[in-house]
C-alpha cells in the first residue's frame, strides 16, 4: 500500500506520464533497457497501416494496395498477414515494395517495417504473383515517450568511472520525448524539463540504467571571487593629509594566462598615495621568483585631459605620488615579463 501511495504522489507532483505508461513507470521512465522501452512502445499501439507499391504500378478500380487495421499489436499484424493485395503493372521486372507501421491514436509511430519483393509470371496463368520475404516490424530508432508539459530532454552519458563524455539534446514536441533506443540501459541520466499545471518550470532526472527518478541533494556554499592582479583601496579612515598605502600581491602560475596588476584608489581628501605590488612568478617545485616592476602609471577618472602620470618604482616595488586631489585614480604597473611579442604570421606562399 505504501508503494502505491508513493507512486500516486509522484504522479500528481510531476504531472508527467499519461495513463498509457506502465504502472511501474509512474515513478520513472521506460528507459532502463531496450526491453522496457519496447514493452512501453507495444502498449501504446492501437492501429497500423500496410502499403504496397511498385514503380510500374497502374491504378485501377480493383486495386488493393493499402490496408488499415486496429487492435493490439499482435491482432494488427495478423490482419496484415491476411490481406489479399491486388494491382496491375506494365513491367513485371520492376521490384515490389511493402511498408508498414504501428502507431497510437495520435499517429505517433512505434514500429515500422519495409521489405522488397518481385513479380513472378507463369506460363500456365495469365496473372502474375508477387513474392516478398516475411515483413518484420521493428522498434523505431527514436521512441516517442509521453510526458505532459515537457519542454526539453537532455541525455548525459558517463564512462565507467562516472565522468561525463557526451551530452545530447533530444527532439521534444507536443508532450513527446523522442528517445533514441541506443541510450536505453546505458550509464548516465536523462534530464527532463517541464511545466506543471501552474506554469512553473520543473526539472527531473532519470537513470538511463534503470529508468527510475534520481533524488536530488540540496547544496549551498559560497565562491570566493576576485579579479586577477587587481585590488581597490580607499582613504576612508585615514587621518587628514596623511599618506595612504595601496598594496597588492599575487602569484602567477602561467604568465600567458595573466595580466599586469592594476590598483583602483578612491581619495576623499587630498593626500599622497604610496602604491606597491608584489608579484611572484611560480617556478619549479615550491619556488617563486619576485618580479620587479619597471614603473607605474596612473590617471584620474574624469580628467578632461586624461593625462597619465609616470610613477617611478624603487627596488622594493614601492612608489609614492605627489599630493593627489579627491577623485578616483587607476594605477597600473609595467613588468618585463608582460612585454609579450605577438606571433608573426607564417608565410607559406610560393614565389610570384
Helicity level = under 10%
Instruction: Report the biggest beta sheet as strand number plus sense, adding barrel if it closes.
Output: 6 strands, antiparallel
- Report the mean per-residue pLDDT as an integer: 88
Which overall shape is indicated by the principal axes computed on the Cα atoms? Answer: elongated
Count of spatially separate domains: 2
The span between the termini is 87 Å
Coarse structural class: mainly beta
Number of helices: 3
Total DSSP E strands: 24
Radius of gyration over all CA atoms, rounded? 37 Å
Low-confidence stretches: 1-26
Strand portion, in percent? 35-45%
**Topology pattern, helix = H, strand = E:** HHEEEHEEEEEEEEEEEEEEEEEEEEE
Tags for this model:
six-stranded antiparallel sheet; mainly beta; 352 residues; Immunoglobulin-like; elongated; disordered N terminus
Describe what you observe in this structure.
With 352 residues, this protein is mostly beta strands. It folds into two domains: 1-215, no CATH class; 230-338, Immunoglobulin-like, CATH 2.60.40. The chain is 10% helix and 40% strand. The protein has three helices and 24 strands. The chain has helices spanning 2-14, 34-44, 73-82, and strands at 47-53, 57-58, 66-70, 88-89, 96-103, 109-121, 128-131, 138-139, 142-146, 150-158, 164-169, 171-173, 176-180, 188-195, 201-207, 230-234, 244-252, 262-267, 273-282, 288-291, 295-300, 309-312, 318-320, 327-334. Strands 1, 3, 5, 6, 7 and 8 form a six-stranded antiparallel sheet that branches. It has a five-stranded mixed sheet with strand order 16-18-24-21-22, with no helix packed on it. The longest helix is centred in the N-terminal third of the chain and has 13 residues, at 2-14. The radius of gyration is 37 Å and the shape is elongated. Mean pLDDT is 88; it is low at 1-26.
Amino acid at each position: 500500500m505504501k508503494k502505491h501511495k508513493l507512486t500516486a504522489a509522484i504522479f500528481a507532483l510531476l504531472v508527467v506520464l499519461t495513463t498509457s505508461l506502465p504502472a511501474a513507470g509512474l515513478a520513472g521512465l521506460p528507459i532502463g533497457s531496450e526491453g522496457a522501452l519496447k514493452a512501453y512502445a507495444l502498449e501504446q499501439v492501437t492501429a497500423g497501416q500496410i502499403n504496397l507499391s511498385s514503380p510500374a504500378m497502374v491504378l485501377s478500380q480493383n486495386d488493393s494496395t493499402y490496408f488499415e487495421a486496429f487492435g493490439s499489436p499482435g491482432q494488427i499484424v495478423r490482419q496484415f498477414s491476411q490481406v489479399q493485395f491486388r494491382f496491375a503493372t506494365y513491367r513485371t521486372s520492376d521490384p515490389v515494395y511493402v511498408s508498414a507501421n504501428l502507431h497510437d491514436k495520435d499517429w505517433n509511430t512505434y514500429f515500422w517495417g519495409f521489405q522488397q519483393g518481385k513479380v513472378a509470371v507463369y506460363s500456365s496463368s495469365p496473372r502474375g504473383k508477387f513474392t516478398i520475404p516475411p515483413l518484420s516490424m521493428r522498434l523505431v530508432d527514436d521512441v516517442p515517450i509521453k510526458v505532459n508539459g515537457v519542454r526539453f530532454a537532455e541525455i548525459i552519458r558517463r564512462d565507467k568511472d562516472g565522468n561525463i563524455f557526451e551530452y545530447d539534446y533530444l527532439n521534444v514536441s507536443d508532450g513527446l520525448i523522442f528517445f533514441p533506443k541506443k541510450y536505453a540501459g546505458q550509464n548516465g541520466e536523462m534530464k527532463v524539463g517541464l511545466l506543471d499545471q501552474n506554469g512553473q518550470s520543473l526539472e527531473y532526472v532519470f537513470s538511463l540504467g534503470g529508468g527510475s527518478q534520481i533524488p536530488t541533494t540540496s547544496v549551498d556554499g559560497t565562491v570566493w571571487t576576485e579579479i586577477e592582479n587587481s585590488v581597490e583601496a580607499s582613504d576612508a579612515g585615514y587621518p587628514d593629509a596623511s599618506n595612504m598605502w595601496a598594496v597588492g600581491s599575487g602569484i602567477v602560475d602561467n604568465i600567458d594566462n595573466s595580466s599586469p596588476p592594476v590598483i583602483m584608489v578612491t581619495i576623499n581628501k587630498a593626500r599622497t598615495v604610496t602604491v606597491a605590488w608584489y608579484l611572484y612568478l611560480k617556478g619549479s617545485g615550491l619556488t617563486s621568483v619576485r618580479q620587479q616592476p619597471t614603473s607605474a602609471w596612473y590617471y584620474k577618472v574624469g580628467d578632461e585631459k586624461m593625462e597619465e602620470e609616470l610613477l617611478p618604482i624603487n627596488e622594493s616595488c614601492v612608489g609614492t605620488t605627489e599630493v593627489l586631489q579627491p577623485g578616483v585614480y587607476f594605477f597600473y604597473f609595467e613588468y618585463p615579463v608582460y612585454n609579450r611579442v605577438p606571433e608573426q604570421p607564417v608565410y607559406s606562399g610560393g614565389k610570384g
